[in-house]
Every structure is written in C-alpha cells, then in structure tokens.
From TrEMBL:
Full protein name: FAD-binding oxidoreductase
Entries under Gene3D superfamilies matching the protein: D-Amino Acid Oxidase, subunit A, domain 2, FAD/NAD(P)-binding domain
Superkingdom assignment: Bacteria
Cofactor(s), names only, from the UniProt record: FAD
Organism expressing this protein natively: Pseudonocardia alaniniphila
Keyword check for Flavoprotein: yes
C-alpha cells in the first residue's frame, strides 16, 4: 500500500511515523523548509486532560500515554509536570467533564495553596489539572523527524484527484499516484479538500502569542482563563524567565480580512494591557509567535472522507498527536472514517 500525507505538522508527522511502523510505503509532503515549522511552531505548548467533553478528556489521557511511549523511545522528557489551571466561565463545565471521565482533578478557591499563578489577584475559583504541563515542542519535533527520516518530501502539494482505485497528488515535485491520501495541512487543508468534494471550514484568522520576562522563585502552572468581563487567555512558561500569553480577542479584530499587521497590533495592545493590569511579569514583550488559525472550531478534532482521501481538522491538536497518528494511520489503511465517540470507545 502507498499513502500520501499532505502536511508535515505534528499530526502529519505522527501519522507518517505510525504508517511507517505498519510497514506502509508513505510520502509526507511538507511545503515549509522544515517539518513542524508552521502551526506546530514554537518552543512549547500546553498539554492538559481538561476539556469540555468527557470523551476528549479520555482521549487526552490516551494521548498522554502515547507521549510517554515517545519519551521512553527518545529518552527525553516531552511534557513538564507543572500542572494546569482552568478558571472563568468554562471552568464548571470542564470540571464536570473531568469528573465524568474519572480524571484526577480538584476545584479550589482563590486562597488555595494549590494555585501557583502569576496573577496579581487569583481567580475566585479554579480547576486544577495535575497531569497538565508544558510540551517541549522542539523535543517532539526532533523525535518525529528522526522517526520519519526519508519519508518527508519538501514539496508543495497543490492539486488532488480521486482517480480509479486511488488518488493522484500533483506537487512541485511532480505527479504521483497513491492508494490513499491524508490531508493534515492545517490552514492548507480546506482548499485541497474542496478539490475532491470534502468540506472543511475555510475561514482563517490571525493569532499571535507574546512572551514577557519574569523573575519568580515559584514554578508557575499553565493557565487557561475565560473571564466574562476581560480578555480570555492561555498562559505558560516557554523557558527560564519567559512567560507566554495568548489572548482571545474579538474575532473582528483578528479576521483574515483585517490583515496580519493590524491583527498583530490589536493583539499586542490587548495582551500588553492585560499583562500590565493582571500579571506579575515585567510588562515588556520580548518575543512573539504568529500563526494562522481556523476560528470557531472549538476544542477537539473532526474527520471527513471522500473515497480514498481523508481530511482531519481541528484546533489544539498538538496534545492529541500520538493518538491521532495511530487513529489516522489505521484509517488510511482500512478506509474507515473515524469519529470522536467511536475513537473514545475503542481506545
């Protein structure tokens, strides 16, 4: 069997590695200079079990076990043990989902010793996810790059065709025929999927994460905050003395039509103002990370298929990467279309 994986982000590389382990002849197309250089970029990401749905909590736990296998194979720590805090409007729903899934968690008040946050005023109530922590993106990239060595083709896939008994991929490296194709190209998935009759959300938005310096003897936890009257944020440490903050702005300020420069300026102003008001960090931006997102997807992932071509899309997929690699590799081989409830039941 011959499979094409379009997209060399963390999901594409995870699937390529899983296919290689199954003995499948696989080519991973990546248009960037290096794998995991676009949506998967950045030195760190948040891992968490906490989600709004019990199925996603259970699948995050499966993914954490997968990261553990990668850690054993690479002999490298991939996820820190700082823990993750969730506060704000979403907290009660996430806490209920954790309870329904049987995941370890605790709901505490703002005076709890269990909170280690850079907040000038702690949240009145918060959910503690003890399994949460910071993913070492660079270490994951190194591991997956080694596993997929020789299977990644630096070429842009620009056209697909569902042809008899398989599919054809046209790329900057030429034309090639495959038995199955996986589309895992992030922002590039929708235009390619549309060529073969698969709908995935086409809207795009700009997003920027900003890093601030800090000096604290306390190891802070990752933090996801969704207040009703202020900026929603996700926050985590990106290295010694570096604290990253991403803000969830009014969609009108970061829509694709606004342009990268205007969206970046709006994001910078909002996050900097938030840091000055609420955080015990030096209110000085020392780094930023830009990426393109698909708005309104929420947490989790979805799958769509037409014949031999399967597409995957979603937000915050990095933390599910080991699980998604296995699920997508199996679907490429057997021609199935996964669904989140079925995956949660079978894993």
């Amino acid at each position: 069997m011959r499979v094409a994986v379009v997209g060399g982000g963390v999901v594409g590389l995870s699937t390529t590695a899983a296919l290689l382990q199954r003995g499948v002849d696989v080519v991973c197309y990546e248009q960037a200079g290096e794998p995991m250089a676009q949506r998967s970029a950045g030195s760190s990401r948040i891992f968490r079990l906490a989600h709004a749905l019990p199925d996603l909590v259970r699948l995050a736990a499966v993914a954490r076990a997968g990261f553990g296998r990668w850690e054993s194979a690479s002999r490298t720590s991939l996820i820190g043990r700082s823990g993750c805090v969730i506060s704000g409007e979403q907290m009660p729903v996430w806490a209920a989902a954790m309870a329904a899934a049987g995941a370890a968690h605790e709901v505490v008040d703002g005076a709890s010793d269990g909170l280690r946050l850079p907040a000038r005023t702690p949240p009145s109530e918060a959910l503690l996810d003890p399994v949460g922590g910071v993913i070492d993106v660079d270490a994951v990239r190194a591991h997956l790059t080694e596993l997929t060595r020789g299977a990644v083709l630096r070429a842009q896939a620009y056209a697909l065709e569902d042809s008899r008994g398989g599919a054809t991929v046209w790329s900057s490296a030429g034309e090639a025929r495959f038995d199955a194709v996986l589309l895992a190209a992030g922002a590039g998935t929708s235009p390619l999927a549309a060529q073969v009759g698969i709908y995935t959300p086409p809207a795009l938005a700009h997003h920027v994460r900003f890093t601030f310096p800090f000096d604290s003897p306390v190891a802070w936890q990752c933090w996801i905050d969704t207040p009703s009257t202020d900026l929603g944020t996700y926050q985590h440490q990106t290295g010694p003395g570096s604290w990253a903050v991403g803000g969830h702005l009014d969609p009108a300020l970061t829509a694709w039509e606004v342009g990268r420069e205007a969206a970046t300026t709006a994001s910078r102003d909002a996050v900097l103002a938030y840091a000055r008001r609420h955080l015990a960090v030096e209110p000085r931006i020392v780094d930023s990370l830009y990426c393109v997102t698909t708005p309104d997807l929420g947490d989790g992932f979805e799958f769509r298929r037409n014949g031999p071509i399967l597409a995957v899309y979603g937000e915050n997929l990095f933390k599910f990467a080991p699980l998604l690699g296995d699920v997508l590799a199996a679907a490429c081989v057997d021609g199935s279309t996964p669904a989140v409830p079925d995956v949660a039941l079978n894993y």
